[in-house]
Amino acid sequence: MRLVHAVVAALLLALLAPPGVAATPSAEHKAQRPRVSITASPEWVRKGGIVTLTGTVKGVRGRASVTIFQKTKGKSWVVEAVKRTTRKGRFTHREDVTSGDRTYKACVKRACDSVLVHMGQQPKQSTAVSLTGQSASTVEAGQSFSVSGTASANLNGQQVQVQAYDGATSAWSAVSTAIVQGSQWATTMSVGTAGKAIPLRAVFSGGTGLSPSVSNQSAVAVYGWYYLEDLSTVEGSWDLDGAQRISGVTYPRSVGENDETIQVDLQRSCIRFSAAVGLDDSSASTDKSSIRLLTDSVERYANNNLTLGVGSAVAFDVTGALRFVFEPAGINDEPQIVLGDARVLCAF
Q1: For residues 8 and 12, what is the distance between their CA atoms, to the nearest angstrom?
Q2: pTM for this one?
Q3: Which domains does the chain have, with CATH numbers?
Q4: What pLDDT digit, counting tens, does each position of 278-289 carry?
C-alpha cells in the first residue's frame, strides 16, 4: 500500500510541477520561427523598367531558401523565383515589370512578407507656399530687405525661390532663394529695377514626387535714380546736355539752359533731387546769372549770384511733386547755367 501511495504521489508531483521544463522546447521552437521582410525599389516603375526586391530572413540558422511569388490584380499567386539568403540572411531579386501593378511576396516556410509595386509615374503630392512678410515696402534699387513666408510640411528641406516681375521684359526672374525649415522660410533680397509697385512672389519649382506651387503676390516700391537728360520735358527744351564742366569738374550727365524756363514731369513719383549747380566753364569771367529751382510752385533752391568758377552741391526733397521747374535769369550776357549730373530719385 505504501508503494502505491508513493507512486501516486510521484505522479501527482509530476503533474503539478511548474511547466518550465516542458515549456522550454516550445520557446526554442518559437525563437527559431522565420521572420521575413521584403522591400521594392523603386515602388513606382515605368513599363519595361527594372524593380529590385531586397529582403532579410531572421530566426533561421544558416542560409534559408526564400520563395518569391508575384500576382497582378485578379490573378493567383505565381512563383517568380527561389533565392538563397546570404550568411547574413539577405536576399535580392531583380526583374522587368511589363504590365500592371503587382504584389510581390517572399516566404520562408509559412512566414511571409509582401510589397506592392506600381507601374507608371508616381502621382505627385500637392504643395503650398506663401509670402507673408517683408521688412520694407519702399526701398532704393539694389537695397537689401527681407521677405518671409510659410510652406506645406512636405517642403521641409526644399528650396523656395523668390521672384520679382520685370515689366520691361514681361517676365519673372529669381532674386533670392531660401530653404524651408519647420514649414517656414526667410531670406534677404534686393531688386535692381525701379518701379512704383514691383510684384514679388515665392515659387517652389517642383521635385521628385512633389508638384510645383506659386505663392500669393506682394509688391515693393523700388526707387532708382533718373538723370534729367533722359527725361522728357513738358515745357521748354535744354540747350545743353551730356558732359559739361563746372569749376573744372566734368559732369558727364548734365543739362544746361541760359534763358528759358524748363519743366519736367515727375508724375508725383519722385522723392529726391540732386545736382551740382553753376555756370558752364566756357562762360566769360564777367558773366553772372541767377537761378530758381521749384517743385510745382514751391521754391526749393535759389541763387542770385552765379559766377564763373563756383559750383554748389544742391539736393532737396521732391516728394509728391508733379513738376520740376528750372527758372534761369541772366544778369548779363545770359551765360549757360548747368545742372551737373542732375538726377531725381523716382519709382515710375
Answers
A1: 6
A2: 0.67
A3: 35-119 (2.60.40.1930), 129-224 (2.60.40.10), 231-346 (2.60.120.1060)
A4: 999 999 999 999
